Amino acid sequence: MQNTIRRKPEWLRKKITPSSHKAMEALMGERHLHTVCEEAICPNISECFRQKVATFMILGALCTRACTFCAVSKGRPAAPDAQEPENVAQAVRRLGLRHVVITSVTRDDLNDGGAAHFCETVRAVKALDESIVVELLIPDLKENQAALEAVARSGAEIIGHNVETVPRLYHVRKGADYERSLRVLKMLSDTNPAVATKSGIMLGLGEREEEVLALMRDLLDVGCRYLSIGQYLAPASGYAEVVEYLPPERFEFFRSAGMEMGFDYIKSSPYTRSSYMAHEYRKRSDNKEA
Question: Are 223 and 189 in contact (CB under 8 A)?
Answer without folding.
Answer: yes
